[in-house]
Amino acid sequence: MPVNTLKFAEISKELIVKNTTLVAVSKTKPVEDIQALYDLGQRDFGENYVQELVDKERALPKDIRWHFIGHLQSNKVKMIAPFVALIQGVDSLKLLTEINKQAAKNNRVINCLLQVHIAQEETKFGMNEAELVEAKEKAANLPNVKISGLMGMASFSDDSSLVRKEFRYLHSLVGKYSFQGILSMGMSGDYEMAIEEGSNMVRIGSLLFGSRG
Ligand SMILES: *Cc1c(COP(=O)(O)O)cnc(C)c1O
Questions:
Q1: Which CATH architecture has domain 5-203?
Q2: Which ligand 1 atom is at minimum distance from the Cα of 204?
Q3: How far is residue 52's CA from residue 75's CA, in Å, rounded to a whole number?
Q4: For the CA of 48, the nearest atom of ligand 1
Q5: Probe ligand 1: pick from 1, 11, 23, 69, max atoms within 8 Å of CB?
Q6: pTM above 0.90, yes or no
């Protein structure tokens, strides 16, 4: 399926007005599709799989800002540490500590979002409130990571009041624990609601690149 450039233009325009960053989620899609959106001006791309991200980073322009948005295993951090722009979905202190170590080896500071578990499904990763507070405190002693905000994934549900409640909860944590900067929430099916509830970064895949089958 070709890239939906009309949809891209429409969403980009909408997001500029709303001061929201678009991360184009290109997981499983070929480099040609990423290049097509790059040629239209898109620079932020999100990937879920480490090896796939490494291969794409090699093949594509160097000014792309790569977001790792999947579940990251500690033993794979070193593969993306040299270039990753933002690791979304940091869901444990152990992972944060490993990112700090690998960032130091690369003489850089890596931007991270702490992922909060907001969905009903057990399968979605993320910290609870106590773990979030602990990670934020410990991060103060990790010079090579910067906590740039929060990320969350709402339930995969038709119940829009449930999804809205989850977004609202995540937004409430920003103020409660003074997380400044990025609030990454919202995907193809729920990004408009996420923005209404305070998101300033959305991660959109299938609307732009077609369904992943
Ligand atoms: C795949 C994925 C997305 C994009 O999902 P779409 O429904 O295709 O827009 C966003 N965020 C995360 C964490 C993902 O894994």
A1: Alpha-Beta Barrel (3.20)
A2: 9
A3: 16
A4: 15
A5: 69
A6: yes
Domain boundaries defined on the chain = 5-203
Query: Which token pair is 43?
Result: 């620079």
156-168 CB burial, b ≥16 within 10 A, e <16: eeeeeeebbebbe
Check if 48 has its Cβ closer than 6 Å to any atom of ligand 1.
Answer: yes
Give yes or no for residue 29 CB within 6 A of ligand 1.
Answer: no
DSSP state of 195: H
Burial 21-54 (b: 16+ CB within 10 A, else e): bbbbbbbebeeebbebbbeeebbbbbbbebeebb
Structural tokens at position 166: 């989850």
pLDDT in tens, 130-178: 999 999 999 999 999 999 999 999 999 999 999 999 999 999 999 999 9
- Opening angle at CA 54, ends 53 and 59, nearest 5: 95
How far apart (Å, rounded) are the C-alpha atoms in residues 212 and 205?
A: 9
Angle between helices 93-105 and 129-139 (to 10 degrees): 30
Provide the Cα torsion 136, 141, 142, 146; round to 10°: 50
